[in-house]
Amino acid sequence: MSLALALALPVDLFAITVLACAIYYRRHHRTDLALAYVALNVGVFAVSALMLSQQVSLGLAFGLFGVLSILRLRSDQISQRDVGYYFTALALGLINGIGASKPAVMIGLSVLLVATMYVADHPRLANRSRHRIVVLDTVHRDESRLHADLEHRLDATVRKFEVIDTDYVRETMTVDVRFRPLPAPVGPAERTVPLARTR
Q: TM spans, by residue (predicted)?
């Protein structure tokens, strides 16, 4: 292993540890995906480092990125947010493996990727708008009534909705809803009763 790769390896391990453990796991508590991100990152780093040591063309390296990008995490329990972490872990492995000869650029891009995911997936931003597929036990023919029903059921401000399916036999509707939860109600402030003066 060359000196450049020896320096790039701890940078890559530190970056993926921060991304998968300090950011993703602490916010979403999914050990399986955090482990998958680490394994993917280290595997891509090893392959790209081997390609760099064998002086493989840069086109082949980007071809590898394209092939790995085709692989999608196909599961109903995996959101687009998880896919974003997947591509970030993949990019970190390639950047640190291929860019080992330019440590300043390598470190700068790694910091940029991790910082971007930290800000983009911050709870203050991510929790403002939510998405849900709702199955209603009634059919609304008026959009205004459907809008009001969704806000009542979700206890939220509905920003956008789209009817996916309407079953007139079972009297059900499937609606794709994007909404913003209403702030939690604040209880009335406790009144302080002045103490009676004793003579």
A: 6-25, 32-50, 56-71, 83-98
